[in-house]
Amino acid sequence: MSEVRHDWSKEEILAIYNKPMMELLYEAATIHREHHDPNTVQVSTLLSIKTGGCPEDCGYCPQAARYHTDIEGNDLMKVSQVKAQALRAKASGSSRVCMGAAWRNVKDGPEFDQVLEMVRTINKLDMEVCCTLGMITENQAKRLAEAGLYAYNHNLDTSEDYYKDVISTRAFEDRLETIDNVRKSNVTVCSGGIIGMGEQLEDRAGMLVALASLNPQPESVPINALVAVEGTPMAEMEPVSIWDMIRMVATTRIVMPETQVRLSAGRTEMSREGQAMCFFAGANSIFAGDKLLTTPNPDVNEDMAMFKLLGLNPQKPFEKVAQPSTTEAADSELTPLGEKPKWTRPAHKIERNEIAKNKTKLVE
Ligand code: SF4
């Protein structure tokens, strides 16, 4: 049985990534079988509970307020709306709901209380609940845990070196600090990244070094292919080749053998054959539903037809980690601290982000 290592070097990971394809696939598939059922793939549903208007400048993101994109923003959804969508997702085979809010960081107050109620509601539907709400403090992570949160997503996005070319409104260390805060609660960690943002192969390897060296490694690692959206600084990026996706998934599987590897954004551009190779290489989760936050995603019926074709079974909830209990708001032992943490704001200039922002001004 392959061991979990936290001391991978960038060179070792690059050597894996660049192996002849058949060697890479064989090694990844072998490790995958040692740790997971190769015929089981988790279906997760991503809900955008608060869309657009984000103050951050992530170069890939159509939800950043500073870029001129076509997405329709909305205020925080009601708990009843979220419950209805979670029930629909459950009926179509999802065992996990991930709720995303376009916030820089979580602030204590009525909106966070509403999110806590959403977490309680979905956990009571016996589904795994994940949130991606931006940077959070230890107290906020513990309050989410108490409500019954199963996982917190906070992607590293790319390597520490390339991060400065993608985002200027916060630093890589802030990401690590949030992950560390989540680890101080009993919530599992979901953290991955995006390929196709103009990074070098060294950056892909660098991101995997950073993720694999976390101890414990994240329980979940989403691998996204950039969906280049008109109006964002990365609108003109070339689409990621399926072979790059397969290599990235296989390498992730090898360096993080126990992790759930999630084939995330960019699936609409992949053929069934391409996705099947990603599953063979160790991907064991997909996101279902016709939208991934704001970008297109395959229809759930198409996915279920693909599962049937490949003989795949949707994973049941809580197969990896037991269901957390839910504490009602009235019984909570944790109080909001009203903290004002000093998250970093490097504010260096990223040329393509500036160009996209200035185009927005011209359109306005
Ligand atoms: S990725 Fe998240 S933090 Fe960055 S701009 Fe988009 S919504 Fe905001």
Largest sheet: 10 strands, parallel
| Total beta strands | 12
Along the chain, the helix and strand elements come as HHEHEHEHEHHEEHEHEHEEEHEH
Ligand names: iron/sulfur cluster
CATH-level-4 superfamily name: Aldolase class I
CATH architecture: Alpha-Beta Barrel
CATH topology: TIM Barrel
Mean pLDDT equals 93
Radius of gyration: 19 Å
Question: Which CATH first-tier class would you pick?
Answer: Alpha Beta
Structural class: alpha/beta
Contiguous helical run count = 12
Unreliable spans: none
Distance between the termini: 58 Å
Overall body shape: globular
Q: Beta-strand level of the residues, as a percent range?
A: 5-15%
- The structural domain count equals 1
Helix content bin: 25-40%
Mind explaining what this structure looks like?
This protein is of the alpha/beta class. It has one domain (10-317): Alpha-Beta Barrel (TIM Barrel), CATH 3.20.20.70. 37% of the residues lie in helices and 15% in strands. The chain has twelve helices and twelve strands. The protein has helices at 10-17, 21-35, 79-91, 110-123, 138-147, 160-163, 172-183, 201-212, 242-255, 272-280, 300-310, 351-363, and strands at 40-50, 96-101, 128-132, 151-153, 188-190, 193-195, 220-225, 260-263, 283-288, 291-292, 295-296, 313-314. The strands form two sheets. Strands 1, 2, 3, 4, 5, 6, 7, 8, 9 and 12 form a ten-stranded parallel beta sheet that branches. A two-stranded antiparallel sheet has the order 10-11. Helix 2 (21-35) crosses helix 9 and helix 3 (79-91) packs parallel to helix 4 (110-123). The protein is globular and about 55 Å long. The model has no long low-confidence stretch (mean pLDDT 93). It binds iron/sulfur cluster. The site of iron/sulfur cluster has 8 residues, from loops.
